[in-house]
Protein backbone atom coordinates (compact mmCIF):
# COMPACT_ATOMS: atom_id res chain seq x y z
CA UNK A 1 0.00 0.00 0.00
CA UNK A 2 1.40 3.36 -1.00
CA UNK A 3 0.95 6.47 1.17
CA UNK A 4 -0.61 9.56 -0.38
CA UNK A 5 2.04 11.79 1.12
CA UNK A 6 5.69 11.42 2.00
CA UNK A 7 5.68 14.03 4.75
CA UNK A 8 6.73 12.63 8.09
CA UNK A 9 6.69 14.13 11.54
CA UNK A 10 10.42 14.69 11.15
CA UNK A 11 9.83 16.87 8.07
CA UNK A 12 7.76 19.38 10.03
CA UNK A 13 9.24 22.84 10.48
CA UNK A 14 11.07 23.19 13.76
CA UNK A 15 11.95 26.89 13.86
CA UNK A 16 11.10 28.48 17.16
CA UNK A 17 9.29 31.33 15.38
CA UNK A 18 6.49 29.01 14.27
CA UNK A 19 3.57 28.67 16.59
CA UNK A 20 2.10 25.38 17.77
CA UNK A 21 -1.01 26.13 15.73
CA UNK A 22 0.92 26.19 12.47
CA UNK A 23 2.66 22.91 13.40
CA UNK A 24 -0.72 21.25 14.10
CA UNK A 25 -2.05 22.70 10.85
CA UNK A 26 0.94 21.25 8.99
CA UNK A 27 0.40 17.86 10.55
CA UNK A 28 -3.31 17.75 9.76
CA UNK A 29 -2.84 19.04 6.20
CA UNK A 30 -0.24 16.36 5.51
CA UNK A 31 -2.79 13.68 6.54
CA UNK A 32 -0.65 12.48 9.46
CA UNK A 33 -3.64 13.06 11.73
CA UNK A 34 -7.21 13.05 10.50
CA UNK A 35 -9.32 15.67 12.33
CA UNK A 36 -12.04 13.06 12.90
CA UNK A 37 -9.61 11.06 15.01
CA UNK A 38 -8.60 13.89 17.36
CA UNK A 39 -11.22 13.07 20.06
CA UNK A 40 -10.19 9.40 19.96
CA UNK A 41 -6.51 10.30 20.18
CA UNK A 42 -7.15 12.71 23.06
CA UNK A 43 -9.13 10.10 25.00
CA UNK A 44 -6.45 7.48 24.33
CA UNK A 45 -3.76 9.84 25.56
CA UNK A 46 -5.73 10.65 28.72
CA UNK A 47 -6.34 6.94 29.37
CA UNK A 48 -2.64 6.14 28.99
CA UNK A 49 -1.71 9.05 31.20
CA UNK A 50 -4.11 7.80 33.89
CA UNK A 51 -2.98 4.17 33.57
CA UNK A 52 0.68 5.11 33.86
CA UNK A 53 -0.06 6.98 37.06
CA UNK A 54 -1.62 3.93 38.76
CA UNK A 55 0.38 2.48 41.61
CA UNK A 56 0.98 -1.21 41.91
CA UNK A 57 -0.96 -2.48 44.99
CA UNK A 58 2.22 -4.18 46.20
CA UNK A 59 3.81 -0.73 46.67
CA UNK A 60 1.88 -0.15 49.90
CA UNK A 61 1.16 -3.60 51.30
CA UNK A 62 2.44 -7.02 52.24
CA UNK A 63 0.40 -9.50 50.20
CA UNK A 64 0.51 -13.17 51.17
CA UNK A 65 -1.15 -16.17 49.58
CA UNK A 66 -1.29 -19.78 50.74
CA UNK A 67 -0.29 -22.77 48.61
CA UNK A 68 -1.37 -26.25 49.69
CA UNK A 69 1.61 -28.43 48.77
CA UNK A 70 0.20 -31.54 50.46
CA UNK A 71 -2.03 -34.29 49.10
CA UNK A 72 -4.74 -33.39 51.62
CA UNK A 73 -7.51 -30.78 51.49
CA UNK A 74 -7.23 -27.89 53.96
CA UNK A 75 -10.25 -26.31 55.60
CA UNK A 76 -10.73 -23.12 57.63
CA UNK A 77 -7.23 -21.74 57.02
CA UNK A 78 -6.42 -18.92 59.45
CA UNK A 79 -3.17 -16.89 59.37
CA UNK A 80 -1.96 -14.40 61.98
CA UNK A 81 1.25 -12.71 60.80
CA UNK A 82 1.86 -10.69 63.94
CA UNK A 83 0.78 -7.67 61.91
CA UNK A 84 -2.68 -8.77 60.86
CA UNK A 85 -4.87 -11.80 60.43
CA UNK A 86 -6.84 -13.31 57.57
CA UNK A 87 -9.12 -16.27 56.96
CA UNK A 88 -8.28 -17.99 53.69
CA UNK A 89 -11.15 -20.47 53.74
CA UNK A 90 -10.56 -23.90 52.17
CA UNK A 91 -7.89 -25.10 49.72
CA UNK A 92 -7.87 -28.42 47.92
CA UNK A 93 -4.60 -30.32 47.55
CA UNK A 94 -2.25 -28.47 45.17
CA UNK A 95 -4.35 -25.26 45.07
CA UNK A 96 -3.14 -21.72 45.73
CA UNK A 97 -5.27 -19.01 47.33
CA UNK A 98 -5.68 -15.40 46.31
CA UNK A 99 -3.35 -12.83 47.88
CA UNK A 100 -4.51 -11.23 51.12
CA UNK A 101 -3.19 -8.02 52.62
CA UNK A 102 -1.33 -7.72 55.91
CA UNK A 103 -0.14 -4.54 57.60
CA UNK A 104 3.12 -6.38 58.30
CA UNK A 105 4.42 -9.94 58.32
CA UNK A 106 7.46 -12.15 58.74
CA UNK A 107 8.83 -15.12 56.82
CA UNK A 108 6.62 -17.35 58.97
CA UNK A 109 3.37 -16.89 60.89
CA UNK A 110 0.84 -18.54 63.14
CA UNK A 111 -1.25 -20.81 60.90
CA UNK A 112 -4.21 -22.94 61.92
CA UNK A 113 -6.23 -25.19 59.63
CA UNK A 114 -8.12 -28.46 59.57
CA UNK A 115 -7.02 -31.64 57.79
CA UNK A 116 -9.30 -34.67 57.82
CA UNK A 117 -11.24 -33.18 60.76
CA UNK A 118 -8.09 -32.60 62.86
CA UNK A 119 -6.56 -29.22 63.67
CA UNK A 120 -3.03 -28.65 62.43
CA UNK A 121 -0.90 -25.73 63.67
CA UNK A 122 2.23 -23.79 63.00
CA UNK A 123 2.91 -21.90 66.25
CA UNK A 124 5.83 -19.44 66.27
CA UNK A 125 7.40 -18.92 69.68
CA UNK A 126 8.42 -15.35 68.87
CA UNK A 127 9.83 -13.18 66.08
CA UNK A 128 13.04 -12.16 67.89
CA UNK A 129 15.79 -11.56 65.35
CA UNK A 130 13.35 -11.64 62.44
CA UNK A 131 12.97 -8.74 60.04
CA UNK A 132 9.60 -7.54 58.79
CA UNK A 133 8.91 -8.29 55.15
CA UNK A 134 9.09 -5.40 52.72
CA UNK A 135 5.93 -4.53 50.81
CA UNK A 136 5.41 -7.06 48.03
CA UNK A 137 3.93 -10.44 47.16
CA UNK A 138 4.79 -13.64 49.04
CA UNK A 139 3.62 -17.25 49.32
CA UNK A 140 3.45 -19.48 52.37
CA UNK A 141 3.67 -23.05 51.04
CA UNK A 142 2.06 -25.32 53.64
CA UNK A 143 2.46 -29.06 53.88
CA UNK A 144 1.50 -31.78 56.33
CA UNK A 145 1.59 -35.56 56.35
CA UNK A 146 -2.09 -35.69 57.38
CA UNK A 147 -1.47 -37.67 60.55
CA UNK A 148 0.33 -35.13 62.73
CA UNK A 149 -1.00 -31.86 64.09
CA UNK A 150 2.04 -29.95 62.79
CA UNK A 151 2.46 -27.93 59.62
CA UNK A 152 5.57 -27.21 57.61
CA UNK A 153 5.86 -23.76 56.01
CA UNK A 154 8.16 -22.91 53.14
CA UNK A 155 8.43 -19.18 52.40
CA UNK A 156 8.58 -17.93 48.79
CA UNK A 157 9.05 -14.41 47.48
CA UNK A 158 6.91 -13.92 44.37
Task: Describe the structure concisely.
By secondary structure, the protein is α+β, with helices and mostly antiparallel strands. It has two helices and eight strands, in the order ααββββββββ.
Count of helical regions: 2
Give, in spatial order, the strands making up the sheet with the most strands. Answer: 4-1-7-8
Q: The CATH topology of the largest domain is what?
A: Immunoglobulin-like
Distance between the termini: 47 Å
Label the structural class.
alpha+beta
Shape: elongated
Low-confidence stretches: 1-12
Beta content comes to 25-35%
Radius of gyration: 28 Å
Keywords:
158 residues, alpha+beta, single chain, 2 domains, four-stranded antiparallel β-sheet, Immunoglobulin-like, 31% strand, four-stranded mixed β-sheet
Overview of this protein structure:
The chain is an alpha+beta fold. About 15% of the residues lie in helices and about 30% in strands. It contains two helices and eight strands. A four-stranded mixed beta sheet has the order 4-1-7-8, with no helix packed on it. The chain has a four-stranded antiparallel beta sheet with strand order 3-2-5-6, with no helix packed on it. A hairpin with an 8-residue loop joins strand 7 and strand 8 (about 150-155). The longest helix is centred in the first third of the chain and has 15 residues, at about 40-50. It is elongated.
